[in-house]
Amino acid sequence: MMRGAALWAAGLLVAASAAAPPTPVADFPKPLDFPKEDTAEAAKHFNAARTIAGADLFPDFAHRCILDARYKQRTQGEQYNGLVEPFAAFDDLYSVGQMAVSAWVLRTKDGLVLFDSLNNADEARNIIVPNLERLGLNPRDIRTVIITHAHGDHYGGAAFFQKTYGAHVIASAIDWDGMTGADRLKVSGWGDPPTRDIAVADGETRVIGGVPIRFQVTPGHTAGTLSTIFPVHDRGQRHVVGFYGGLGLPWTPELRAAQIRSIARWIPIAAKAEVDSQIGNHPLHYEALERLEMLRYRQPGQPNPFVLGSAGYSRYMRVQSECTRLWIARNGEPQP
Predict the structure, then answer these.
(1) Cα–Cα distance between 213 and 130 in angstroms, integer?
(2) Region 39-330: CATH code
(3) What is the mean pLDDT of residues 191-206?
(4) Cut 0.90: pTM above it
(5) Is 188 exposed, middle or buried (0-12, 13-18, 19+ CB in 10 A)?
(6) Predicted confidence band of residue 204 (pLDDT cuts 50, 70, 90)
């Protein structure tokens, strides 16, 4: 009987789908066009990014240089609001976000550090909190929330953690202005910003729960994007994460030029700190689901997919820079 009911329901869905009028071809989304493109300059940076990426970083090149830039609807289709499985990327670093946007938790000897907080209080309460509990972590142990940049899909849930658990919130001073100022960007679904709290300076290191976290202000995605460097462990072995706080294509010529300068400055800083591991702001930007499956079936001796190695991490950032330069060339702007 249950099987018959399921087949009946499925039939209704098929019938409803068949009854829906098809989308006229004239309404199909089109690839983004670049009428001002400097084609020679664009080809130069496209091929530079492709060469630097090689086979191992090809998904990063394809996403940043091709799909997100030219076929935005595909990115939007994959980057939807949806639940994903929380998981431990390292012994002490956990993914607790959703499909459209990431949230990360670092476990320290004195509580938890949350990086970004999803879109709003509802997502904070009903995604991050249960994800923590599924991983055996207590949300009451969240001591600090670090906001990577002043877009509401990253800060929208932070006020919940301030009010519910008394967590402190860290951001750059300029992005505090961007979050809390009268002219802040407002998008449907984004929660109100947290109460202004701690502003960190460029190059500052804070020891939180015994873990040194280095902060760099890396303008580009926003004017005060905040990037971090901190140690983690994989099966007891020490690694260093470089969390660049915003790699989406910048919206203005000024921010595009700023992102080029920031990445150029960040690469030697990361190299000196021996960064060898990479995480990101959105699962689509760093193959989160693919890496989760690799971790799920990882065998003894197999590498952690979040560990790129020092040279690999540097190449990853160079690909990001070349793809921004490609975006600049496509818009017919002078290279910084």
Answers:
(1) 26
(2) 3.60.15.10
(3) 97
(4) yes
(5) exposed
(6) very high
Cα torsion 262, 76, 113, 172: sign: positive
Report how far residue 149's alpha carbon sits from residue 239's, in angstroms, rounded to the nearest whole number: 24
Structure tokens at 44: 């130069």
In the block, tokens 């462990």 appear at: 233
**Beta bridge mates, 169:** 145
**Residue whose token pair is 């800060």:** 155
Average pLDDT over residues 251-267: 97
Report the relative pairing of strands 198-200 and 168-172 from DSSP bridges.
Answer: parallel
Among 150, 68, 92, smallest CA distance to 116 is for 150
Amino acid found at 205: T
Is beta strand 237-243 parallel, antiparallel or unpaired with respect to 277-278? parallel
Instruction: Tell me which DSSP letter residue 62 carries.
Output: I
pLDDT class for 254, splitting at 50, 70, 90?
very high
Q: Phi, psi at residue 108, to the nearest 5°?
A: -120, 175
